[in-house]
Amino acid sequence: MPGPRFDIITLFPDQFPALVELGVVGRAHKKQLFELHCWNPRDFTDDPHRTVDDRPYGGGPGMVMLAEPLVRCVKAIRDARGDQAPLIFLTPHGPLLKQADIRALCAQDQGAILLCGRYEGVDQRFIDEHVDQTYCLGDFVLSGGELAVACFVDAWVRLLPDVLNHALSATQDSFESGLLDCPHYTRPEVFENKAVPEVLLSGNHAKIESWRFEQAKAYTERFRPDLMKNLPEIDTKASTKGKPKKQV
Q: Which residues bind S-adenosyl-L-methionine (predicted)?
């Protein structure tokens, strides 16, 4: 069964080859676990200059992406795909993208059409009529949507079966249980006079699991206390108030 297909609408398709050549995503692409196709709106224009933007009505700085080339581009993509995959736009106007959102989209197993915004924005009429879902990566601004879309695809692909070397790797990541991940250690056993916590050397898997859970709660309460509000089932009283528990 073929993996999900990602169709990316971008004015700079040359930004994406590295995404499918390197690291975890690159290995997954070589194994044909997903498809990635880039579409340039300039290829769907009629004028000699291949115009994809114009000045905003009402004045102001910058340019706005034209709706018509985008509509033509989306039609060509849907004809090529033959399905109703969601058209997703990463924009400050969307809700904060969360791991649960990625998991839900991944479960649909069809991929998505991803719009990379540029300039001052995209003609709102295109967004209103053709965009199915918006998300925001955070309260900051990028010069274009390509980096945001690359992050989105990376987060999605690593959840696909057979992508990561260990099947449990993704399930133990930060945010999967609602908590941040616990701290990790590797060789040497002592580094700059700091030793690995004894419990991790004990071989007692039950104690190790309990320690990691407590550390995850403590780290979350310290660095992302906002996440704790959404976890009523966790005994937050067991964690410390200002910092992770002392590691023993």
A: 117, 137-142
Pick the catalytic residue: 13, 56, 86, 92?
A: 92
| pTM to 2 decimal places | 0.83
User: Is 128 a known active-site residue?
Assistant: no
Pick one of 3.30.430.20, 1.10.1270.20, 3.30.310.170, 1.10.357.10 as the CATH number of 174-238.
1.10.1270.20
Name the catalytic one among 173, 176, 181, 214: 173
Domain 5-157 CATH (choose: 3.65.10.10, 3.40.1280.10, 3.80.30.20, 3.40.30.10):
3.40.1280.10
Q: Is 158 among the catalytic positions?
A: yes
Q: Is the pLDDT higher at 247 or at 102?
A: 102
Q: SS3 string of the chain?
A: CCCCEEEEECCCHHHCHHHHCCHHHHHHHHCCCCEEEEECHHHHCCCCCCCCEECCCCCCCCCEECHHHHHHHHHHHHHHHCCCCCEEEECCCCCECCHHHHHHHHHHCCEEEEECCCCCEECHHHHHHHCCEEEECCCCCCCCCHHHHHHHHHHHHCCCCCCCCCCCCHHHCCCCCCCCCCCCCCCCCEECCEECCHHHHCCCHHHHHHHHHHHHHHHHHHHCHHHHCCCCCCCHHHCCCCCCCCCC
Indicate if 209 belongs to the active site. no
Condensed to tens digits (0 to 9), the pLDDT of residues 143-200 reads: 999 999 999 999 999 999 999 865 556 666 767 778 988 999 999 999 999 999 999 9
Averaged over 31-59, what is the pLDDT? 97
| 199 belongs to an annotated ligand binding site | no
